[in-house]
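Per reviewer request, we include the raw input and output of the structure prediction for the construct analysed in the revised manuscript.
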Amino acid sequence: MRIAIAQLDYTIGAFDANLALMGDAVAVARAEKADLVVFSELSTIGYPPGDLLERNDFVDRNLRQLERVAALSDDELGLVVGFVDRNTAGHGKGLFNSAALCVGGRPVARYRKCLLPTYDVFDEARYFEPGGPAKPLLFKGVRLGISVCEDVWADPDLDGRSIYHRDPVLEQVEAGAQLLINISASPFELGKAAQRRDLIRRYAAQSGRFFVYTNQVGANDELVFDGHSIVVDPTGKVVVRARDFAPDILIHDIDLDAAAGGPGVLRPVAESEEEQACMALELGLKDYASKTGFDTVLLGLSGGIDSALTAAVAARALGPDKVLGVAMPTRYSSESSVADAEALVANLGIGYRIIPIDEIFQAYLDGLAETFEGTEPDVTEENIQARIRGGELMALSNKFGRLLLTTGNKSELAVGYATLYGDMAGGLAVISDVPKTLVYRIAEHLIRDEEVIPRTIIEKPPSAELRPDQTDQDSLPPYDELDRVVEGYVERNLSVDQLVSEGIDRDVVEQVVALIDRAEYKRRQAAPGIKITAKAFGIGRRYPIVADYRGLHEPRS
């Protein structure tokens, strides 16, 4: 059987545009005399649709979209399409996350997703009813064991525990499936592509079946989908691999009687974490901007590593001519930082503007002098500078229609080392899920061939430059220690005692954990970011603002 993997970049609810993408893929498959085109999960509407699923008109358009897609099939070329089906029973949720087998211009059979994830960024039980027994669908005399995304994640975790009570893939095998197919919309995070690959390999080897896995690519809101679609043979060997972070269509002949797969196309993919992270950030920014209607972006340039990396990612994702960097020096800005910003601009070829803000800052100080009389300068005056910069950048965004990018990293966002309505102001927080230590690693990755980021920026101590001789470590532990706490506490849910048992100083742990908890109110007001780690500050982390169950917070005066 000749299979076409259609790894496409969908925009949620863009029915006509999505249909055009699918039509192009079908045309390629038909020209290659394929038997079956396999699209990804919810390909009629894009993933994740969220509360659009609560709109009857949206669901109805999705059903009409299924008919339009099905019309692309014929008696020779079948399609596997992800869509939303209605639950007509008198109980349970009103929808099913489904796959349709389309032949002869119409849907001829349906499969309903059985396992509905409700962890991290997923909340499918909010909308969907789980499917019943998993049974193969017959196509050209072959029993197709179709499953949808989470259905392949029934395996026990590292602790030997599965969160599910059934395994739909094994149900398909036991029911006589000859070819296994999974359609997915599995978001990217560092290391996840290897996890998916190992899952599919295990199922293929255990069942002695070929396994076709098609994943969505592209970015929608916070989530990046890396594609990385594969075909695995009955020995567990990957014989086909699609591109990562880019659309792809691959054609492969599967001999169902063979004990192993023949040679196939193995696209090169990113191997290192640094390269994966960089590609994910670029795709996340590119799709977020284009899908929300922005052609150009701007950002504040401080001469520091975070704004430098953000600018480099933007230039790579959109093109240098689409990026404007803005320097806004004050009396505390060093000459070296201004020079570093100018060198970065020259290296990247982006636009550049200098808007000094010291006069505005002084006007604030003068205007507040009587009210602040008898007090000492503190973080208040520092935040005034940040908020002036945020206001200036938002004004440029409004005036010229540029998407404003914030430049704070995950480490800063975790502990609240950022200013509300200041450096947090913007439309997209590009590196908000990138820990500071990874920021440096990605920067080193980018300059391996060409020094796009000046080394002076990478090597100098990080500083907000909001007071004389300021460095980040005046207020925070060293970033290697801080990031260990953030990773353990946020991503692995370790306790204070567990973090201390891993060799981190207790005072450091308690300081960082208290800061993380106290900063929740700031993060609720932050721009959306691009998720690349196992747990980002966004839709997948739901912590209360008012909690203090560890008693680590200092009393408020």
